[in-house]
Amino acid sequence: MRPAGTYFDRFDLAAVLVLIAIAFVLRFFSPIMPDFFVHPFQGPWLTDCVSSTPIDPVGDPGTLCGIAYPFNRGYGDPLSPPNGEVFDEVYFPADAYDDIRGIEHKACVRPNPPSCDYFDPEPPLAKELIAAGMLGYGWYRATFQGAGGDYIDLGNNTFGWRIAACIFGTLCIPMMYLLARRLWPNRLFAIVAATLVCFDGMFFIQSRIGMIDIFPIFFILAAYFLFLVHIQSRSLARSMLSLLALGIVLGIGIAAKWIVLAALASIVFFLVLWVVLRSLNIRFGPDGWPFLLSERDANSEVSRLVWPTYLAVGIVALAIIPLGIYLASWYPFFARGQFHNLADLVAYQRAAVDYHRTLTATHPYGSPAWSWPLLARPVLYYAEYTRLGTDIFSGQPLMARITNLGNPWIWWTSIPCVLALPYYIGRHRSFPAAVILVGFITQYLPWFPVTRVLFLYHMLGGLIFMILALAFVLANVANNLRPEGRTMLIVAHLGVAVLFFAYFYPQWAGVPLSVPAYYISADTPPWGPKLWLVNCKPDLPAKQPQLFCWN
Predict the structure, then answer these.
(1) Are 169 and 203 in contact (CB under 8 A)?
(2) Residue 185, preceding bond cis, omega within 30 degrees?
(3) CA 88 to chain CA centroid, nearest Å
(4) Half-sphere exposure of 337 (CA within 13 A, CB side)
């Protein structure tokens, strides 16, 4: 028998471990391809290596494996990108490298050597996590491979600046499971939510690239989990400790990217709402300390003792601690001399806000916020069209592409589920539905008034709650079916999600395919075409986004 009050048992542990293993293998070893047809009876049937792919800025061919692939060849004079960077890897790993070199007071290579000063409108902590991955890989090479040099130099490569994202992206899967299990004690809900994260293309790609976007997503998941632990606490001590832990996680998340401020706002909203509802003797959501004391019939003496303490701890946890962590995250700027005092830090924040507010640059892969759930314009991260060899089946030239397309089955089926959340809140007074809806609104709607160019990956915060909404509605519908129908519904939906993942996997992992496998033609094989939406207009003005175009 499971002990009373236990929400996580051996079955949950087994489910989480299996999902972690699947997620890590997919993220770390991709691209995983069949090798038997290319090299029959000459080795393993599967390989995670791509041959004849660029391995240096001039495009010399070689072999790369796992998350070290791809290496983006350089173009122009001087060659850009200079070190194989893919999309925004030209910014964040370089900033991470300069942070470490600046702390060590060593010369940097950009933007104005030997200075390590730079401007980036994003907070620094996610880049510091990327730097930790680079240092860790540099240490590994020096310790176990006999490489010589500074750790940061040894780790300044495609593997080094992607490994941290791979780890945090993998950890998003168990974090989603824990969050869902706390939000609603329904194991089916947790399994579905975590599985959908595991097999979504956006989560997959952002876990395999040296960009900062996956780090705040992990901390948003962790923050909502700790918020639920807090409001479900069965003692005052646990309530206070979980509140302090929540403040630490929020501070780390905000220092990684400002989108975590939306999670902070949502959590504060719910905490205030709890106090108001309890004071009116209205029950909504779980019972926990100290919110039970808000009821009119609560022990007034205990209430007078507890609430001042709770308010003080709340201010420390949700204001002072996040602010302190945010300030501390800027240490590299002070250490290398770019900042000399707090006035410099404040001026930098103003410049970052002005950058986002006044940026007028256009981008061929930009898209408006309303189009994101529809997957109208995914961003092309990587493309290689030459010298990859020929397809052994058709004799056609091979090409490789990586786009940040989400899993269409997951994204499109989540839309009606998000729209159904008000029904569950109004008809069933569903606390989980309220948390999911408020989380989605606060992560998604703030993008609408933003005037600068935006991209599909900005939907990643909202995607958390799209997936939760989908899992919530599926689990609710399944609970109203007979056991055999329940199993059939969940297996069918998750099975289709996995099939979609397999179908689009080549363009998420950069697997070389023939041209007809991307573009529909008479020669298109059964595993294509990958580009479903081709409403692409080459003569469209730069200010107008190409929508419903996957090319």
Answers:
(1) yes
(2) no
(3) 15
(4) 9
Per the model's pLDDT, the better-predicted residue between 529 and 533 turns out to be 533
Rounded CA separation 215/468 (Å): 19
Residue 423 to residue 98: CA distance in whole angstroms: 51
The torsion defined by the Cα of 464, 467, 471 and 474, in degrees rounded to 10, comes to: 150
Token representation of residue 493: 């939906």
pLDDT in tens, 282-329: 888 787 777 666 554 555 555 666 778 888 999 999 999 999 999 999
b/e sequence 277-314, b meaning 16+ C-beta within 10 Å: bbeeeeeebeebbbbebbbeebeeeeeeebeeebeebb
Give the distance, in angstroms, between the CA of residue 91 and the centroid of all CA atoms in the same chain.
Answer: 18
Name the strand (E) or helix (H) holding 50. Answer: strand 49-54
Residue 78: which pLDDT band, with cuts at 50, 70 and 90?
Answer: confident
Q: How far apart are the first and last CA of the chain?
A: 54
In angstroms, the Cα distances linking 500 to 67, 409, 520 are: 22, 7, 18
C-alpha R_g of the chain: 25
3-state secondary structure of 403: strand
Sign of CA dihedral 336, 341, 344, 350: positive
DSSP 207-256: TSSS-STHHHHHHHHHHHHHHHHHHT-SSHHHHHHHHHHHHHHHHHHHHH
- Sort residue 58 into left (φ over 0), alpha (ψ -120 to 50) or beta: alpha
How far, in whole angstroms, is CA 304 from its chain's centroid?
42
Q: At what angle do helices 431-444 and 158-183 cross, to 10 degrees?
A: 150
Q: Residue 530, CB half-sphere, CA atoms under 13 Å: how many?
A: 29
Q: Burial letters for 478-491: b for 16+ Cβ neighbours within 10 Å, e otherwise?
A: beeeeeeebeebbe
How sure is the predictor about 3, in pLDDT bands with cuts at 50, 70 and 90?
A: very low
Q: Look up residue 51 and give its two tokens.
A: 């041959």
Alpha helix ranges (H) inside 257-341: 260-279, 300-315, 321-328, 331-335
- Cα gap 314→308, rounded to integer Å: 10
Four-residue CA torsion sign, 286, 290, 296, 298: positive
CB atoms within 10 A of CB 165: 28
What letter would DSSP give residue 452?
Answer: S
